[in-house]
Design a protein that fits this description.
The structure is a single chain. This protein is an alpha/beta fold. The chain has 2 domains: 14-122 and 312-331, 3-Layer(aba) Sandwich (Rossmann fold), CATH 3.40.50; 124-308, Rossmann fold (3-Layer(aba) Sandwich), CATH 3.40.50. Helix content is 39%, strand content 21%. The chain has 12 helices and 14 strands. It has helices at 24-32, 49-61, 98-109, 123-129, 131-140, 155-170, 190-196, 207-216, 235-241, 251-265, 271-285, 304-310, and strands spanning 2-10, 15-16, 41-45, 65-70, 78-79, 87-92, 114-116, 146-150, 179-185, 245-249, 295-302, 314-315, 320-323, 327-331. A 6-stranded mixed beta sheet has the order 2-1-11-8-9-10, sandwiched between helices. A 6-stranded mixed beta sheet has the order 7-3-4-6-13-14, with helices on both faces. A two-stranded antiparallel ribbon has the order 5-12. α2 (49-61) links the parallel β3 and β4 (65-70). The chain is globular, with a radius of gyration of 19 Å.
Amino acid sequence: NLFICFNGYWPERDAHLSTCSFKELEAFPILARIPEDNPKTLVVASAGNTGRAFATVCSKLKIPFCLVIPEQNLSAIWSKEPFDSCVRMIAVGGNGDYSDAIRIGQIISQLEGFFPEGGAKNVARRDGMGLTVVDATVTIGEIPDHYFQAVGSGTGGISAYEANLRFLADGRFGNKKMKLHLCQNIPFTPMTDAWKAGSREITALSEIEAKKCISQVSAKVLTNRNPAYSLAGGVYEALADTDGEMYGVTNDESDKARALFEKLEGIDVSPAAGVATGALIQAVEAGKIAKKDTIVLNITSGGYKRMRQDYPLHYLKPRIFWNRALAVYHNG
């Protein structure tokens, strides 16, 4: 009994997230909380989807915005409309990854005239991403038995869990806690490894080892080296309270799952969505899902191929390239 929560661009299904990602759902509530007379510039570090969502929405609403992103992920920052000059981007070079972008974003956000978005601690972010569970539960008519999603920072998993708790408090959609099935892209699986080891703490990897693993995954958006796992109210507690599971999915499994999804449903999905679909396949094959169970599969991003067919895309160009070894080496 599978329900697919598709976040992206799929006009035949009336799906019109213009950034092709559920991160667009978090951008609007976060930006809505910024006072209209706020003179400061919002700073967000991203591996792709979050940055694209904020850059697009801030451009549309003329909200000053600074995006920090790894240089290797620049192709992820596009829009079907030209970007406004209020949106600026810094690219982190020198083999910089998502965590490097986060560190530089934190430095910039502490400068005069800038402020940070807040990440997992921002309730508006969690409420926005939790809309996937809200929509699914209202559509189904009850809280689902199982929920599948790929995670990088872990905020999406926490958001799903918190939305479930709100439905329990409401009382009209049943009294069950849906089982969280969260997954990561092998070989970069810090949360999966910790959960399977029964540990609340993530085993620290050296920077060299972490970057080596990150370079091998296809779902770059899932590569946060400091996820919201161990902290109070984090992924570990959400999994423990729902008797949850975590999975590791290879690039090959993700690719096959994406191909299967496109063949059966007729729309392309992202590598991260392929990881989630691959985890669902693993769970079914392992007998973890009963035949009559209700399942929600969160396709966090899809329809990029279709978007490119329907619209010419505009790519945001970095104003600054930041190299850790050379500091700032180019000012565009």
